[in-house]
Amino acid sequence: MFTAEHNSLIDGAVQFLRRGGVIAFPTDTVYGLGVDPHDDKAVKRLFEIKVRSKGKAVPLMIRGAGDLNLVAESIPASAKLLIKKHWPGPLTIVLSKSEKVSPLISGGKGTVAVRCPDHPIALGILVRFGRPLAVTSANISGEEALCAFEEVSVEFSSKVDLIVPGEVRYKIVSTVVDFTVEPPVVLREGALKIEV
Is 4 exposed, middle or buried (CB count within 10 Å of its CB: 0-12, 13-18, 19+)? Predict the structure, then answer.
């Protein structure tokens, strides 16, 4: 259950997102920077804030496996098994993207990276926003991902619309597995130690 303060912070975050804002918020892995993936202006601003090259994809965060049909073309059986075991959690999966996913989000590629966080504030924002969010780690591209509210405030308070206070659990990025190839490939080792 959320306190009145948490509810207020989540509601504020959702209001900023709906107005094209960029927010920073805690997840189970590291702090994230999030925007509405259907708002091209907000996505471009996210790239500017992170000093991120336009060809790089931005992962999508969803409420649960039920939202995969909003972002992915198909989900292989091997991906479904890992999702069932590790979602919500620090697992990002790469799938063939749906036509609904903007080329800005996919970096012009035919794939999309998706994850469901195991964090009450992150999930609260996703549930109240009502659809996927484009979320990338809170850091300048190429630098260490930030994990503490204070660090994020120093780096981003003048650049984003809202920083939601909170704790992160793992303090390390998610593990990324690509299911667009057979057999699947671990692209990045992170908080989750798995073999595919």
Answer: exposed
Predicted pLDDT at 32: 99
Instruction: Report CA dihedral (56, 59, 60, 65) to the nearest 10 degrees.
Output: 140
d(CA 77, CA 10): 34
Q: How many CA atoms lie within 13 A of 95 on its CB side?
A: 25
Instruction: Yes or no: say if 16 and 163 are a contact pair by the CB < 8 Å rule.
Output: no
Domains in the chain, ordered, with CATH? 4-188 (3.90.870.10)
User: Three-class SS of residue 97?
Assistant: strand
Longest CA–CA separation in the chain, Å: 47
The span from the CA of 105 to the CA of 99, in Å, is 11
Phi, psi of 94, deg, nearest 5: -105, 125
Single pTM value for the model: 0.95
Mean pLDDT of each 10-residue bin along the chain, 196 residues long: 78 98 98 98 98 94 98 96 97 98 97 98 97 98 97 98 97 98 96 87
Q: Which residues of 23-57 are buried (b: 16+ CB within 10 A; e: fewer)?
A: bbbbbbbbbbbbbbbebeebbebbbebbebeeeeb
Quote the pLDDT of residue 5. Answer: 75
